[in-house]
């Protein structure tokens, strides 16, 4: 029986949702299951298939009503222009077990692929090729393959657990009957398993894949990513959503894991922003590779720079930063800035309310295209009579701001001068380790300057490394509550539109205070050239504590009663 058909028959279940297989050349009819693990290149392709499930929030290669939306636009950091998109159900409270938000449940297909690979790769025997020139390179790669797959499986479990909490956790390839009766594993046990797998993988994976197997295989799971994933899992386990008693030991475990990554001395912060050239950045830990494409720019550029190339039905499919987010960026001197009811409010003597976006945290210009910014040789103008003041339904900004993060400025849609670029979606970068450490240390010890023989770096030192890299002054607050507020803001500005804010709001349980109103800016240019900036309520949003976790899809509960109970409130 062909390999494609074997996969298709087994994978109909609540845990392995759909038929997934690889399109291999079936020349000579050799592609049965056994033959797939007889040849190195095909074994490698099977592992690539496991990698193919790595989640990616941004669609750099496709176009569609839902795939162009960024999850930050289901938080107070932004708004997605298309009102009919599924992401709007999160904002208006209309998502449910029968009308789910994303398709993360399909990660069980990736887990199934990983389980199958882990089982089969142990029996691969290439000894008949030992006299070939590539044999030693093949064997070197094969040594790492099982651990790569185990880290990917752990990563997929984490992605599911941060959505659903307690989850089904299959560790073998299941039959339909087994899949339809498997029960849920408690969140704490899922995290413990992830930690165990990451510890084991970290002992066996290389620091990088630059020369493994005779090739540059950047983009694969490494020792550093295994340790980083462990840190991330423990941070979520220690956070208020999953640690209601605020157990200090949970925070210490997260800090300890982060410090292990720091002490590798393998990664360095990138002053230019890791996302501008991630593959050559010492800050990158892992990224998902993408082919050359321009859809991300096409639907996020100011409309006039698309030169009429946007699909008419997708005109409004842009991601727009909110005034809520803009207010999170300090001045470069470390002063807070807010657009209040009476205009701009800022205590920085250098702040100019007529040029409120100048002299801000340098990360602001990397994240947001604001009025007056120069981009591709034009000045962005969203004032009432400006060139970029277009109705949202026709491709204009919903908030008065355009997205800059991940945008490749060299992309062009100008006739006879078109240009596309490659994008890499960053799954983890080193700044996350430092902020994880800072947050965990403050919660564990209640102070920003605490350190001892084990925890040799203080929370403030870790936090201020991230700020110094961005060109921002040190924070000096040492009290727990004040410093936690600063750390949370640092997460927000450092990782805006990198798929963090949506999750941070939930793990911190702050949705009720942050997710109710989304604001934009309205700019009027007076005849004398002076501009009047007004904070405008763009949208009132729904929030309920049940939204801290996703609902389990109702179709899965129908298939498998052991996935009950449904998450609270759904």
Describe this structure in words.
There is one protein chain. The protein has 19 helices and 14 strands. The chain has 570 residues and is of the alpha+beta class. Among the domains are: 69-102 and 295-419 and 501-570, Alpha Horseshoe (Serine Threonine Protein Phosphatase 5, Tetratricopeptide repeat), CATH 1.25.40.390; 222-294 and 427-494, Serine Threonine Protein Phosphatase 5, Tetratricopeptide repeat. It has a two-stranded antiparallel ribbon with strand order 1-5. A two-stranded antiparallel ribbon has the order 2-3. It has a two-stranded antiparallel ribbon with strand order 4-12. Strand 13 (517-525) and strand 14 form a beta hairpin. It is globular and about 80 Å long.
Q: Which descriptors would you attach to this protein?
A:
Serine Threonine Protein Phosphatase 5, Tetratricopeptide repeat; alpha+beta; single chain; 19 helices
Q: Give the strand order, joined by hyphens, for the main sheet.
A: 1-5
Poorly predicted residue ranges: 1-30
**Helical/strand content category:** alpha+beta
CATH architecture of one domain: Alpha Horseshoe
Q: Report the β-strand fraction as a percent range.
A: 5-15%
Number of helices: 19
Major beta-sheet overview = 2 strands, antiparallel
Query: What global shape is seen?
Result: globular
Q: Report the end-to-end length measured between terminal Cα atoms.
A: 43 Å
User: Which bin fits the share of residues in helices?
Assistant: 25-40%
- Tell me, what is the CATH class of one domain? Mainly Alpha
């Amino acid at each position: 029986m062909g390999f494609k058909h074997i996969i298709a028959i087994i994978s109909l279940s609540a845990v392995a949702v759909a038929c997934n297989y690889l399109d291999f050349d079936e020349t000579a009819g050799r592609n049965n299951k056994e033959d797939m693990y007889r040849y190195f290149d095909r074994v490698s392709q099977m592992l690539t298939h496991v990698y193919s499930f790595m989640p990616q929030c941004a669609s750099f290669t496709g176009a569609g009503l839902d795939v162009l939306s960024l999850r930050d636009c289901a938080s107070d950091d932004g708004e997605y222009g298309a009102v009919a998109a599924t992401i709007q159900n999160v904002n208006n409270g209309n998502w449910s077990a029968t009308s789910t938000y994303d398709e993360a449940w399909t990660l069980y297909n990736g887990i199934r692929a990983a389980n199958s690979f882990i089982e089969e790769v142990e029996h691969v025997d290439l000894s008949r090729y030992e006299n070939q020139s590539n044999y030693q390179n093949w064997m070197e790669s094969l040594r790492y393959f099982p651990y790569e797959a185990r880290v990917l499986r752990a990563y997929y479990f984490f992605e599911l657990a941060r959505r659903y909490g307690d989850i089904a956790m299959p560790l073998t390839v299941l039959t339909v009957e087994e899949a339809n009766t498997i029960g849920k594993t408690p969140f704490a046990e899922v995290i413990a398993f992830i930690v165990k797998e990451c510890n084991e993988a970290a002992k066996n994976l290389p620091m990088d894949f630059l020369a493994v197997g005779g090739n540059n295989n950047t983009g694969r799971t490494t020792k550093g990513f295994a340790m980083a994933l462990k840190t991330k899992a423990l941070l979520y386990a220690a956070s208020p959503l999953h640690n209601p008693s605020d157990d200090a030991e949970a925070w210490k475990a997260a800090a300890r894991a982060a410090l292990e990554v720091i002490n590798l001395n393998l990664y360095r912060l990138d002053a230019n922003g890791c996302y501008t050239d991630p593959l050559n950045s010492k800050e990158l830990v892992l990224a998902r590779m993408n082919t050359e494409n321009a859809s991300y720019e096409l639907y996020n550029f100011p409309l006039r720079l698309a030169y009429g190339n946007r699909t008419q039905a997708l005109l409004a499919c842009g991601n727009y930063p909110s005034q809520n987010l803009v207010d999170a960026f300090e001045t470069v001197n470390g002063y807070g800035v807010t657009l209040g009811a009476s205009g701009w409010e800022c205590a920085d003597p250098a702040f100019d309310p007529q040029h409120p976006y100048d002299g801000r945290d340098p990360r602001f210009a990397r994240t947001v295209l604001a009025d007056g910014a120069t981009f591709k040789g034009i000045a962005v103008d969203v004032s009432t009579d400006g060139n970029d003041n277009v109705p949202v339904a026709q491709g204009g900004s919903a908030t008065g701001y355009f997205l800059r993060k991940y945008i490749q400025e060299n992309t062009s849609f100008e006739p006879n001068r078109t240009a596309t670029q490659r994008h890499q979606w960053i799954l983890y970068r080193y700044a996350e380790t430092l902020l994880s450490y800072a947050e965990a240390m403050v919660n564990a010890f209640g102070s920003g300057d605490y350190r001892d023989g084990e925890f040799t770096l203080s929370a403030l030192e870790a936090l201020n490394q991230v700020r110094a890299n961005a060109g921002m002054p040190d924070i000096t607050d040492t009290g727990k509550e004040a410093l936690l507020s600063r750390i949370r803001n640092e997460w927000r500005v450092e990782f805006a539109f990198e798929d963090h804010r949506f999750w941070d709001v939930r793990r911190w349980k702050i949705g009720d205070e942050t997710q109710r109103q989304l604001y934009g800016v309205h700019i009027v240019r007076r005849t004398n050239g002076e501009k009047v900036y007004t904070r405008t309520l763009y949208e009132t949003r729904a929030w309920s504590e049940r939204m801290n976790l996703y609902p389990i899809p109702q179709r899965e509960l129908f298939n498998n009663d052991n996935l009950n109970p449904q998450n609270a409130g759904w």
